[in-house]
Amino acid sequence: MFEYFKYIFITVLSTFFIHIGIVVYDAIHHPVAVGQFVHPDIGLDIETLVKRNGYPFEKHHVTTEDGYILELHRIRHGLNKKNLTNRPPILIVHGILESSMAWLSAGVDKALPYYLAEQGYDVWLSNCRGNAYSRKHIKLNPDVDKKEFFDYSWHEIGVYDHPATIDYVIKKTGKSKIFYAGHSQGSVSFMVMMSERPEYNKKIKAMLALAPVVFVDHVKSPTFYIPALFQNAFEWIVEYFGLYELLPKSEIITQIANKLCNDESRLQKLCSTLLNINGGFNGDKFNSTLWPVVFSHIPAGSATKQYMHYTRNIFNDFRKFDYGEAKNLLVYGNKIPPLYDLSKVAAPVGIFYGNNDWLTPEKDVQKLIRSLPNVVMVHKVADENFAHFDFLVSLHAVDILYDKLVNLMQQYK
Ligand SMILES: *[C@@H]1O[C@H](CO)[C@@H](O)[C@H](O)[C@H]1NC(C)=O
Ligand SMILES: *[C@@H]1O[C@H](CO)[C@@H](O)[C@H](O)[C@H]1NC(C)=O
Question: Nearest 10 degrees: CA dihedral of 283, 288, 294, 299?
Fold first, then answer.
């Protein structure tokens, strides 16, 4: 009996992999030109996409103290041109492996930046060091000096990238304070910034923490806790093969996504599974037609060390990067890395989380709420299946989440 099932299992599994193999082979050997993809948004650069939707688009560059050149994208106003003269600026920060583009995949009537622009905000989308738009440095070449260029985690993003960006936005807009919204790692790096450079608290009107993965003790996502369980093997592989850059943006992924994730593909489910295995399964709250668009922007590249900073913190509190006892002694003067001091996050913080988010389970969110001194709002999204990536792409986010963000900001205008 067992034998019988074994053969059925092997047959099904090999059919599955052969099928994937054929699609991937086809995608690589018959690449599609921009404009010929199954969806017109696939592979578009952000400027073309935003302008095609009728919105104004600006590109800005900021250089950090340690030499990284970051690209910022700005949508200055909405189609309705409300409040043209007095628009509060908001800086929106993406998560690991994402970019400014991740916020726009959901389409013109569903995406957060367009929604905020229509509500009267001056929208600035950040790109953290090392992603597809910010893969530049005044001295280092990311392709040649990989090890040095990608030697950072979300610690450096919080300590260097955000302060430089906030100062730039303040200078350009002439305002003394701005709003900040961060998804996932974009919330974590905010906490790092305020704990390390608390003078930046006074430059923030209010911070919106969307799915903040600050404490990761109860993370359910296997892509996080499995490497955490096999930390040494994982780090050995990274060093041995020199994998300092994690999943950079690639034309091949766009081509494969075009074939694999479209509505006609029998393997479309695999695409949603690839994302949801990280952040939780939300049923079908996403417009499946847009999967190939999403995967033409994600992954957009990160440093592997960002990911390692998370996996080292699993079961281990919110600490600075753990180099191992010997190097910790040199760097921190202590065998164990110090904790970030969340009591220094004085800016008003609103926390927004989903019930089915595998990366921010309720227990971890509660611990964050207890640790922060100035939480002004806690909102659990009113959908029991709301998961990690729904903050970016849910069909209902405008109704059940984005209007709540605006409500909070109205109080701090
Ligand atoms: C835009 O102006 C309207 C009317 O004056 C006001 O109610 C709204 O709060 C303003 N929005 C922003 C973001 O300032
Ligand atoms: C899903 O996306 C497609 C393509 O952008 C669009 O035509 C369709 O109206 C969307 N469906 C829903 C339910 O929003």
Answer: 50
**281/338 Cα distance (integer angstroms):** 34
Residue 68 identity: Y
Whether the CB-CB separation of 100 and 133 falls below 8 Å is answered with yes
Lowest mean pLDDT among 128-142, 146-160, 164-178, 213-227: 213-227
* Per-residue exposure over 392-403, b if at least 16 CB sit within 10 Å of its own CB, e if not: bbbbbbbebbbe
pLDDT recorded at residue 20:
86
As a whole number of angstroms, the distance between CA 20 and CA 6 comes to 21
Catalytic annotation present for 184: yes
Judged against a pLDDT cut of 90, whether residue 413 lies above it is answered with no
| pLDDT given for residue 208 in this prediction | 98
Spacing, Cα 290 to ligand 2 middle (Å) = 8
Whether 88 is in the pocket of ligand 1, judged by its Cβ within 6 Å, is: yes
Question: How many other C-beta atoms are found inside a 10 Å radius of the C-beta of residue 221?
Answer: 19
Answer yes or no: is the C-beta of 120 below 6 A from any ligand 1 atom: yes
Q: Which ligand is nearest to the CA of 286?
A: 2
Residues with CB under 6 A from ligand 2: 107, 287, 289-290, 395
pLDDT in tens, 261-305: 999 998 999 998 988 999 999 877 888 999 999 999 999 999 999
Q: Is the CB of 370 inside a 6 Å radius of any atom of ligand 1?
A: no
Q: SS3 string of 302-328? A: EEHHHHHHHHHHCCCCCECCCCCHHHH
Ligand 1: which of 83, 118, 403 to mutate, judged by most atoms within 8 Å of the beta carbon? 83
The model's pLDDT over 292-350, given as tens digits with 9 standing for 90+, comes to 999 999 999 999 999 999 999 998 899 999 999 999 999 999 999 999 999 999 999 99
Mean pLDDT over residues 359-385, rounded? 96
Q: Is the CB of 43 under 6 A from ligand 1?
A: no
| Residue 359 token pair | 């990366």
145 Cβ contact list (under 8 Å, min separation 6): none
- SS3 string of 215-242? CCCCCCCHHHHHHHHCHHHHHHHHHHHC
pTM for this predicted structure:
0.95
Which DSSP symbol is given to 59?
Answer: E
- Give the CATH number of domain 46-412; options: 3.30.565.10, 1.10.10.10, 2.30.30.280, 3.40.50.1820: 3.40.50.1820
For the chain, the domains span 46-412
Alpha carbon distance 372, 343 (integer Å) = 6
